[in-house]
Amino acid sequence: RLSNPLRPAILAAARSSKLKAALTKAPVTRRIVTRFIAGETRPEVLKVVAALLESGRVISIDFLGEDTTDRAQAEATVGEYLALLDDLAGLRLPASMNPNNEIAPLEVSMKLSALGQALPVDGDKIATQNARTVCEHAQRLGIWVTIDAEDHTTTDSTLRIVRELRTEFPWLGAVLQSYLRRTEADCRELAGPGSRIRLCKGAYREPESVAYQSRSEVDASYRRCLEILMLGAGYPMVASHDPEIIAAAGDMTRRTDRGRDTFEQQMLFGIRDVEQLRLAAEGYTMRVYVPYGAQWYGYFMRRLAERPSNLRFFLRSIATV
Ligand code: FAD
């Protein structure tokens, strides 16, 4: 991932509105994005979710959208999440998923930037209130919420908002990114009882001053951070497709005597499906992060940047049209 020489260029392109307009209009792109995105509409994503649940995996759904620039758009996003929660609550869960289990099989993931965090006036306040509205509804329905991590300029504000909301919703999850130099300290602070922390490597382009740049440093940081979380009293969520990280997580759970109901594995929809099924069959809680919505461009470009083979797949598909 971080060794992909095209990564900086692709992540820069992820912010280009011209390229976004050209790519999102091209019919071929639409066909390719379905590998990573479960659909543009709620009925489409619900079909995917039903199949994932049937296969023994649990889910977290992300309604795609980021960099919201007006309040009405942020409110529309809240409206979509509320409708999504209602639809999720109406799903029939497989008999194997015990409703009394402490682990919620259903979760939604949200980006605070989609809820108004970047608005020039009262962004933090608006995003907090919007997230609270979603959390209140989710709590009534027994569905979990996790707040995604975005670029490092938002980390302080996001963690502040998570801390505030966790006084009302102690089950609210947060995401930490091992490429950030600060994350070990954040893990120590957030490894307390009941704290649900999704640890990932990080998907944005970050300067050296705040983030490790080489893959080996990011991986080493991931292991240090995971160890802190595993030794802590919280509920770590191991979000990675990396076989070495997954094996290291297995070792740590054995060493720290953690039961399988005290942490979970997570992967993205469309990535390492066979491995997801293997982990679920072995009795791990395997949660799949399922994105949907028309605003898929930024998410899609981050997946292309992660792996030369994802990019090759995309270019080959264009070439064969
Ligand atoms: P990488 O270093 O990308 O890959 C390591 C190895 O994994 C590869 O060498 C290969 O062996 C294997 N692998 C990776 N991809 C594939 C593939 N397609 N097929 C086969 N093998 C593969 N990032 C954020 O910044 N904020 C978030 O809120 C966030 N949420 C996430 C939620 C989940 C559930 C997950 C899984 C990721 C999330 N991410 C988030 C993205 C994350 O930060 C990484 O960008 C992404 O997961 C790639 O890192 P990796 O750990 O999978 O390892």
UniProtKB/TrEMBL annotation:
Residues 46-313 form the Proline dehydrogenase domain. It catalyses: L-proline + a quinone = (S)-1-pyrroline-5-carboxylate + a quinol + H(+). Keywords: FAD, Flavoprotein, Nucleotide-binding, Oxidoreductase, Proline metabolism. It comes from the Bacteria. Substrate binds at K111, R302, R303. InterPro entries: FAD-linked_oxidoreductase-like, PRODH_bac_arc, Proline_DH_dom, Proline_oxidase. One of its GO terms (biological process) is L-proline catabolic process to L-glutamate. Its EC number is 1.5.5.2. Pathway: Amino-acid degradation; L-proline degradation into L-glutamate; L-glutamate from L-proline: step 1/2. One of its GO terms (molecular function) is nucleotide binding. This is proline dehydrogenase. FAD binds at Q177, K201, G202, A203, S240, H241. Binds 1 FAD per subunit. Its cofactor is FAD. It is an enzyme of class 1 (oxidoreductase).
